[in-house]
Design brief:
- The protein has 6 helices and 2 strands; from the N terminus they run H-H-E-H-H-E-H-H.
- It is mostly helical and 170 residues long.
- It has one domain.
- It has a two-stranded antiparallel ribbon with strand order 1-2.
Length: 170
């Protein structure tokens, strides 16, 4: 039920907040996010750092993650990128607000047992990751190749600190 409510909230929010005439401007960055998320789910398939906790028998992590990746996150990315201020201090406050918002939402999802941590992952790891994610999304939006190149050391560090064993790889 929470998934339907969450999707409805973001569809309504997207309807009123997103300038849908500009969706093509954000499309490459949305694709970038989806590809990165699919890579995470593939690489960490047997060594999940976090997972959505389904509340009904017809849901699983994969279905929930696909709904988030294909419906909710694209709306979030468009809202985020469309409203980034030009002035640095305002940009920093805006970025901080998004990082805190995402971390707080995840904290409540985790407390409601809708989101679970595994293999040493903690809420502070998510806060750090959210900061990196929102930064790289902006970089990718402005300079796609730079965003992709920045992602490589981030993936290497993620694998270094939360590495699955070779046997855990699919």
């Amino acid at each position: 039920m929470y998934l339907v409510v969450t999707v409805a909230i973001f569809l309504i929010l997207g309807y009123f907040v997103v300038d849908w005439k500009r969706w093509r401007d954000f499309y490459p960055t949305i694709q970038y996010y989806i590809i990165c998320n699919l890579m995470y789910n593939f690489i960490f398939f047997n060594h999940t750092l976090w997972a959505y906790n389904p509340r009904t028998p017809w849901l699983n992590h994969t279905v929930i993650d696909l709904v988030f990746s294909l419906i909710i996150i694209p709306i979030i990315i468009m809202i985020y990128l469309e409203h980034i201020p030009a002035v640095f201090i305002k940009k920093l406050l805006y970025w901080t607000g998004w990082v805190v918002l995402f971390t707080v939402i995840e904290y409540f999802f985790q407390k409601m047992d809708l989101f679970i941590y595994r293999n040493g992952w903690k809420i502070m790891d998510s806060a750090l990751f959210n900061g990196i994610m929102f930064t790289v999304l902006w970089v990718h939006y402005k300079r796609p190749l730079a965003g992709i190149l920045i992602s490589i050391p981030i993936i290497i560090l993620l694998l270094y600190f939360h590495h699955p064993t070779f046997m855990d790889l699919k």
